[in-house]
Amino acid sequence: MQHGYWIRSKPVYHSLSWQHRAQAHVLVANGEAGRSIVRLLHQRLPDQPITVLYHPTQEADYSKSLVSLAGENLHVFKRESELWHRFEQILQQSVMGTRLYAAGNEYFLWQATTLAASHGVLSGDVMREQASSLARSVYCVHCKTISHRVTTNIAICTGCQRHLLVRDHFSRRLGAYMGLMIDAEEPGNVPEAEEVYP
Amino acid sequence: MSALKVIVSAIEQVADGICHFTFAAADGGELPGFSGGSHVVVSMPAHNRTYRNAYSLLSSPADRRNYQIAVRLQEQSRGGSRFMHEQVKVGSRLDISWPVNLFPISRVGHKHILVAGGIGITPFMSQVHELLRTGADFELHYAFRSPQYAGFIDQLQQLLGKNLICHDQSQRQVLDLQALLSQQPLGTHVYVCGPAGMVDALLSTAYELGWPDAHVHHEEFLAPPIGEPFTLRLKQSGKSVEVGAEVSMLEAMEAAGVDAPYLCRGGACGRCELEVLATDGVIEHHDHYLSDAEKGSGKKIMPCVSRAKCSFIELNL
User: Fold this and answer.
1) Who among B181, B208, B212 is closest to A125 (CB)?
2) Residues of A in contact with B208 (CB under 8 A)
3) Rounded to an integer, what distance in angstroms lies between the CA atom of residue A128 and that of residue A117?
4) How far apart are CA B144 and CA B121, in angstroms?
5) What is the distance between the alpha carbons of residues A94 and A129, in angstroms, rounded to a whole number?
6) Chain A nearest C-alpha distance from B107 (Å)
7) Please, what are the domains in chain B?
8) Are residues A111 and A155 in the same domain?
9) For the domain that residue A99 is a member of, what is the CATH number?
10) Minimal Cα distance from B183: which residue of A?
11) Complex ipTM, two decimals?
């Protein structure tokens, strides 16, 4: 396990809060992170229009709470791809001053950021809250497969089955941490995995 | 700091009070390349002191045969712009710094709104060449008092066509910043250069509309304001320098032979920042670089434009 040091690429997340100087507000969230949007909607609301895009998952569905708070400003999507499609449409029509908020697991946050970046929105302009599991998406440097929901410091690549050490080097473009073969020098010598990203 | 040696090859009046200078390399070769929005610092050896002012480069970055700058004669010139207008002739030799860019076009922007007021047009002259070359989506808003003050207007009209939007105040054509900034697509960047009032109005309009800071760019070179004389003590060298009412701290240090750091000399870049150790008065911050918190702390000063109302100030240099 790597800990106790600072690495530039590893993102730091904050709690979402309303940016009251704005022309509009667009929020995207999935699963467990619906609770963060509920919390945000309990606070004093900004004067400008609010749009909430939410994708409930098997683990958590906050649709009912959200609909009672956001009403017709809420759009619930059965599939995540549908949420991204709608987000893309909104980005196309939005003007400068539209504030973007994302809450979800890390992979979701960086998908939102990457999509926004394709419309010229800088990474720092998207507010992000890591609102659910700390599980990591891991990019295998050997076969380039991304394995999702990795909760351990050593994980088996879903592409090439190598044992990967999950590092802290993070790619914002991929939304994933670097994973590299842990027993390359001594094949078979794989330390026991520990759950460090619950 | 190594200087570029240039010869003035042409001088032309382009608008009321605005002179346009063309520089060629003294050795007849090519000048260093630069990017759109760059400036150079011109050294002007007047009889009693050397003035150094920053001027934007106007020509196309693709053309390295010469550099072009425009100098407006400041009504309350400290001497620099007057020197350029009255002393510099075709054939004069000058030292200039290498080009520095504190006002580049964002490479990740999807649309660019350039807003110029009066002589603030100068940094955009090189930028428009770069934007045209890359095929970027952009428009230039040019506000001026009346057509005789609108330098380079013909050249810009020819170059930009409908991408140039003029706001002639003598025709009551007012630039509506609220309307301009409230309807721009995501990914737009805005750049402003002009009088302080115009820059401040644009910055606050963008802020109120929720434009992220990273999408709002401005360039403003300040002239060091006149103040009261005081004594500058330099801790490391043990030197004591008298700062006159009409010279900046940086100029006073240079005249005393102190090798102080600098780049833009206009309160924009931050290169000349020095640590304040003690003073018996108050610092008068004039720069655009330090944050309000830093200015309030009284621990830092930009000696190119800021000074102090005191009998002495001690710096860590």
Assistant:
1) B212
2) 21
3) 14
4) 10
5) 22
6) 10
7) 4-101 (2.40.30.10), 111-218 (3.40.50.80), 230-315 (3.10.20.30)
8) no
9) 3.40.50.80
10) A95
11) 0.88
CA torsion sign for B174, B177, B179, B183 is positive
- Tell me, what's the pLDDT at B221? 79
- The tokens describing A38, both together, are 């509920």
**Phi, psi dihedrals of residue B267, rounded to the nearest 5°:** 75, 20
For residue A151, the SS3 value is coil
Could you give the CA distance from residue A76 to residue A60 in angstroms, rounded to a whole number? Answer: 13
pTM of the model: 0.87
Judging contacts by C-beta atoms under 8 Å, the chain A residues touching residue B216 are: none
Instruction: With cut-offs at 50, 70 and 90, classify the pLDDT of residue B38.
Output: very high
DSSP type of residue A45: P
How far is B239 from chain A, CA to nearest CA, in Å? Answer: 41
Chain A residues whose CB is inside 8 A of the B188 CB are 96, 120
Same domain (yes/no): A100, A193: no
Tokens describing residue B70: 């425009």
**Which of A23, A96, A98 is the best mutation test for B, with the most CBs of B within 10 A?**
A96
- Say if CB B218 and CB B193 are below 8 A apart: yes
| Whether residue A126 sits in one domain with residue A61 | yes
Cα→Cα distances A164→A140, A151, A158, B174, Å: 7, 12, 10, 63
Cross-chain residue pair B186–A96, CB shorter than 8 Å: yes
Q: Say which of B210, B214, B215 has its CB closest to residue A99.
A: B210
* DSSP type of residue B266: S
Task: Give the per-residue pLDDT at B1.
Answer: 53
Mean pLDDT of chain B: 92
Residue numbers of the domain that contains A151: 133-198
Q: Do residues A154 and A137 both lie within one domain?
A: yes
Q: Kindly write down the DSSP assignment for every residue of B206-255, as one continuous string.
A: HHHTT--GGGEEE--PPPPPP---EEEEETTT--EEEE-TTS-HHHHHHH
Mind telling me how many Å the CA of A174 is from chain B's nearest CA?
18
* Chain A: residues touching B (Cβ < 8 Å): 19, 21-23, 91, 94-99, 116-117, 119-122, 124-125
Position A4 in a domain: no
Would you list the DSSP string of B18-83?
A: EEEEEEEETTSSPPPP--TTEEEEEEEE-SS-EEEEEEE--S-TT--SEEEEEEE--TT--SHHHH
User: Is A73 in the same domain as A115?
Assistant: yes
Residue-wise pLDDT for B134-189, tens only, equals 999 999 999 999 988 888 999 999 999 999 999 999 999 999 999 999 999 999 99
Considering only alpha carbons, which residue of chain B is nearest residue A93?
B185
